[in-house]
Design goal:
The complex is a heterodimer.
Chain A lengths: L4 E2 L2 E5 L4 E6 L7 E7 L5 E8 L4 E4 L2 E6 L4 E6 L8 E9 L3 E4 L3 E6 L1
Parallel strand pairs in A: 2-11
Antiparallel strand pairs in A: 1-3, 3-8, 4-5, 4-9, 6-7, 7-8, 9-10, 9-11
Chain B lengths: L3 E4 L2 E4 L5 E7 L5 E7 L6 E8 L2 E4 L6 E3 L9 E3 L8 E8 L9 E2 L3 E5 L1
Parallel strand pairs in B: 2-11
Antiparallel strand pairs in B: 1-3, 3-8, 4-5, 4-9, 5-6, 7-8, 9-10, 9-11
The chains are: A mainly beta, B mainly beta.
């Protein structure tokens, strides 16, 4: 099964906040990532958080990490139509790979 | 501009044929990776390479092969042994091998078997 789990779909109204949730399994993960994929394109790193942090904020993006529950979330403030995309949560596994969730498709409606 | 280039963007293959997907990077990265993406699934690692002339199998290497003769290039061959090759393939690179390093992705190649 998946090491990283995410809900598959999220619909949000333009201007509202989006919250994308993720759970992971490897308690030794030192870095957790959020990637964005626009249609037909590769993945773009949005932000990452080191495991000794609880929160990281970068402009409209806020990442929250709950290590006890192995829960990661990404909040996008003031969601815009350009934020419509697939968002992947990923954790570092061993020393050689990222383990990705299935991705959350975010649809922004007017 | 520095980046990763995958070609072609779209590729059609007849059943029973081998096909090679190109991945070139000019970021001077040591580590390179190939992932496969299927709808509703996360990315799955096919092969990775830490350094020139070295590569290792990932989680789903069966039916695929790679080479790393140059630092800049990491081509992936999808062989006829791959039973379900239709997918979106993503190449990535990172400055070094290991945790905490940002992976840069190419734009992907969509392979369709006809």
């Amino acid at each position: 099964g998946e090491d990283v789990e995410q809900s598959l779909f999220l619909s949000v109204r333009e201007g509202d906040s989006s919250v994308i949730n993720c759970t992971y399994t490897d308690s030794s993960s030192t870095y957790l990532y959020w990637y964005k994929q626009e249609p037909g394109a590769g993945l773009q790193l949005l932000t990452y958080i080191f495991s000794n942090m609880d929160m990281k904020q970068d402009q409209r993006l806020t990442v929250l990490l709950n290590k006890k529950d192995k829960h990661l979330s990404l909040r996008i403030a003031d969601t815009q139509t350009g934020d419509s995309a697939i968002y992947f949560c990923a954790e570092s596994i061993d020393d050689y790979k990222l383990s990705f969730g299935a991705g959350t498709t975010v649809t922004v409606r007017a | 501009d520095g980046g990763i280039t995958q070609s072609p963007k779209y590729l059609f293959r007849k059943e029973g044929q081998n096909v090679t997907l190109s991945c070139e990077q000019n970021l001077n990265h040591d580590a390179m990776y190939w992932y496969r993406q299927d709808p509703g699934q996360g990315l799955r690692l096919i092969y990775y390479s830490q350094i020139v002339n070295d590569f290792q199998k990932g989680d789903i290497a069966e039916g695929y092969s790679v080479s790393r003769e140059k630092k800049e290039s990491f081509p992936l061959t999808v062989t006829s042994a791959q039973k379900n090759p239709t997918a979106f393939y993503l190449c990535a690179s990172s400055i070094m091998f290991g945790r905490g390093t940002e992976a840069f992705f190419g734009q992907g190649t969509r392979l369709t078997v006809v």
